[in-house]
């Protein structure tokens, strides 16, 4: 966590201001009991009312000063902590934006999201706690001890017994309670899991008539959680009484020994009263610090996760020397490409070679895990090849800037991702300066114009986050339009027709043919009907190419292809 | 002073952090719609533990009594010390500190503290069981209720919404019962006790201490109003930022592919800046509350010291009483700020409770028939007899449907996505009730059967394959309690799942993880087919969609499904032409209702929607097949 706090550097002036202000605030807190003892020892003893009033007013001023310092500290610490949160968030986000898909795979999208949002918020909150209380606690504790010693050093020996005693009590209870807290978290997770399964599987549970079984499962988890909670709460019930007991017993000790000191003339009564208050301050600051020990482990877990993100270096970087463009347009070639995902035993694709030219449609078909999607994600250089070369327009993709490379490509990913904004915005995503005309045209080819015009605001209709207000098929069509508006040299469709019904699928492909005459089109598909009329079909099987050719050729030569075809079409359709 | 900093210290901290619990000071508080009613109902949940609660109250009274008493006793010791020393100073002969008396007082004090601590421990100890058992009951009731709610309830809201009520809201109630309730009791008792003690010492000083109260109330409320505004703003910006991050990360591939990293970063910076602005203001303003409160407390402290000092010189009160009074006024302001805090917590708890009770109040499924009909030997003859149905009265989807499916027949349901194919399943399984007409199985109206019995006639293999966190064996045996090992394996073999199961590291004992992501989508489907085979139902409901399944697994799935369908009446959401053509009856659905029905040939001859759908695939799509 300390490593992360290096990000506080730009805010060090603010932090110093906080330190100084908290210091003065603590001083004022410490000064008040001394002043009060003056009231007793001088004012009351001598019966000097004027003195009492004067000191009283002075005390008010000290308290006022303390308040001003404290408000100031709050101002600067808010700014420092929020600023810290802001720059850390920006740093993480910026860093993640440079990640290739490989890093995303490694950490997982959901985890990256929590790391950028919740984890940072968590750290920011702890920082505020530290700036507000953590700094104050040791100052009050040490200051309190100094003041106490200055009042009466011998009496301060009481602390030698009391402070370790208190620390030990807190430690023992925490040690006993902690494992239970962890167990509780696990049991809550378990209960939530049973609950969530009950919700997602509700139709299955009811259709298999297993309601009672699920009830029993839930009841077991519920009971387990309840029993552990009762146990831990019974242990924690000790915490407060014991702390209070230690503190009260020490005040009693102070009074007794203080009385003896007073009797022997080493101390005055007002001093004893002040001493009592210092003792309280010292012990409360100890309790405060102990609370931080509960917070810090939680925050440091967050810190570790954030650091993991920041320490990850993106594998793919632009080469220092880039090769100039060849002037060729729409050529994609794989030369003996092999690629494995990090940590995998087997390569995801092995020794792949083929070439696709402008005006041609290349289809890739094969089972899941056969390497289709992997193959095409090498074209926009989402991953780095292990060996061999991927050429786009005759140049190795590693010799181009990623920006240049990706400008040439119109990608329609398997999972259609839309962004918050209007339909216009979403299609324009493919080409920032696209005219309305171009957008409409792209939508038309993607077979999206019909449903768009049926929507209330047409092209200005707003897509909700995650595209939840449009159907799967509509999402897919919009994401196709987004790629088409780019007028790319290379189009990649990664299983992009799966959510479309047969009719739309067919219409779309017919329109697409017209549109992409000068571009290379690469289609990954599951349905045989989608790939039938491709110029070239690449059949993937177990990471390797099982056959390349058109439908007719493959039906004769490729077993894997035939198997796929027979599984999807009835005899008469094939015959 | 430090005392207050610790105790009210939850204020500047976020939700769930620190001892302040949820909803620190200055944060917006959620309010319940019907506070009183909900509170009353929540209290009813506590009523089985009435006796224990009384014990808690009794303990609290004792503990507070002893703790309120102690400052006064301690003050007496100080006074004795003071008197002794003054006597000495004034040279009164024989004057000395009466250590025997002080010693007695100290023994008394030790006793008081010990008793107070002991009772406070008992109080928490008993409360632990009361709180957790109450929450246990609440959770059980909610879960039981959920099993009785109709599917309509679940379809109308997200799982997350229901889940959050059962988990977050119930947790909220749990921690309030555990902590805040006892705190509240003690705080109220302490305030009463302290006021009595203070009045006994000096009515004038009590007046001064009480006068600082309205001051703090005014200060808190005026600041809280401001800070709430900022907190709401902060929450909004945080929501936007999280939304943006989520969107950008899930769309990372697309952003990369379209080279939009810079744009997304720019947008992020804008939101981040706004969040910073709102964030530090909210923090700052709420952070001002504590210093101001503490200052007001200090005013009281100074006034007590001054006035007390003067009163001592006049001989009205004793020195030790000032000391006791200072302690009392601390004990007095602390519970008051605490009570303000707890009031917020209680409000949000009642709001939580209200949401939980809302579930408990939902309308349940139509009650089961008193004398349900049981089919001894189900054949699987299904008849829709003048069925009328709509999810609500305004939109009737099915006007007058008549279908007859005889034993062993296949009914194909076709139509574009979102055409409402699940509606039929909902009716067949009686997840929803028909508006009019009847559905009969083997001549018995399904409304006259027990839901459980009816549903056990059916086997479902759906697209969203539901498997639970458990072993593969348990998952397959799910539909058939007490299935033997051989039966499970036989079912797996018939479903072509045995082979892949045996390639897994622990075979049939492999535990499927939470999302069942350790096996592929296709393998999941094979498991659900095996499950249906083992359950051996008379009627099947199948969903053929296999878009995310690899082609070779699909071959297995199809084989397994064909195996399963033998001799059973099957309703198939069909995607494969072969299935559709061979079906005894095709139901064509669009926009939620059945628009055509008939056999393949009949429908083609009709030249309607189906014919259109069919032709589009063959003529234009390039099914130019001359192979073979």
Question: How does this structure look, described?
Answer:
Chain A: The chain crosses the membrane at residues 52-76, 126-149, 155-174, 235-258, 278-296. Chain A: Residues 16-298 form the ABC transmembrane type-1 domain. Chain A: Residues 332-567 form the ABC transporter domain. Chain A: This is ABC transporter ATP-binding protein. The complex is a heterodimer of chains A (575) and B (628). Chain A has helices spanning 2-5, 12-46, 49-97, 101-107, 109-116, 118-134, 136-151, 157-200, 202-207, 211-236, 239-263, 269-311, 372-377, 402-407, 423-428, 436-445, 449-454, 472-484, 502-515, 528-531, 551-557, 559-568, 571-574, and strands spanning 332-339, 349-356, 361-366, 387-392, 395-396, 409-412, 421-422, 462-463, 490-494, 520-525, 536-541, 544-549. Chain A is α/β, with parallel strands linked by helices and 575 residues long. In chain A, the strands form three sheets. A six-stranded mixed sheet of chain A has the order 6-9-10-3-11-12. In chain A, helix 2 (12-46) runs antiparallel to helix 12, helix 7 (136-151) runs antiparallel to helix 12 and helix 8 crosses helix 12 (269-311). The mean pLDDT of chain A is 85. Chain B contains 20 helices and ten strands. In chain B, helix 17 (551-565) links the parallel strand 7 and strand 8. The model of chain B is unreliable at 1-24 and 618-628 (pLDDT under 50). Chain B has helices spanning 2-7, 35-46, 50-89, 99-148, 151-155, 159-201, 203-250, 252-257, 261-313, 319-361, 421-428, 451-455, 472-476, 485-494, 498-503, 521-535, 551-565, 577-582, 600-606, 609-620; strands spanning 382-389, 398-405, 410-414, 436-441, 444-445, 458-461, 539-543, 569-573, 585-590, 593-598. Chain B has a six-stranded mixed sheet with strand order 6-7-8-3-9-10. A four-stranded antiparallel sheet of chain B has the order 2-1-4-5, with no helix packed on it. Among the domains of chain B are: 407-437 and 444-457 and 538-621, P-loop containing nucleotide triphosphate hydrolases (Rossmann fold); 469-536, no CATH class. At the A-B interface, helix 2, helix 3, helix 5, helix 6 and helix 8 of A face helix 1, helix 3, helix 4, helix 6 and helix 7 of B.
